[in-house]
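TICKET: design request
STATUS: open
ATTACHED STRUCTURE:
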């Protein structure tokens, strides 16, 4: 744990060691393998990040993206961020 610089690196190592778990089962909960595998695809992660930055640059209040605005509002209501 001491050699990682951020939570993403730590989460990747945790996924490598323990696996994603089972959505329906007795093991630790986790996302399906295909969803977690996409996190290891750095090209996909970088494309997603660039797309998100583009949306926020062109529409910072998400007024032209009401579905995304709704999802963000839902996430904020369920998540405690400090």
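STATUS: resolved
RESOLUTION: sequence designed for all positions
ATTACHED SEQUENCE:
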């Amino acid at each position: 744990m001491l050699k990682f610089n951020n939570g993403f690196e730590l989460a990747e190592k945790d996924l490598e060691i323990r696996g994603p778990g089972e959505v329906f089962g007795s093991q630790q909960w986790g996302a399906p393998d295909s969803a977690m595998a996409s996190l290891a695809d750095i090209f996909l992660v970088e494309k997603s990040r660039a797309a998100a930055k583009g949306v926020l640059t062109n529409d910072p209040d998400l007024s032209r993206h009401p579905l995304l605005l709704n999802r963000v509002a839902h996430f904020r209501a369920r998540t405690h961020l400090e």
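CLOSING REMARK: The helical segments are 7-18, 33-39, 42-58, 66-78. DSSP finds four helices and no strands in the chain.
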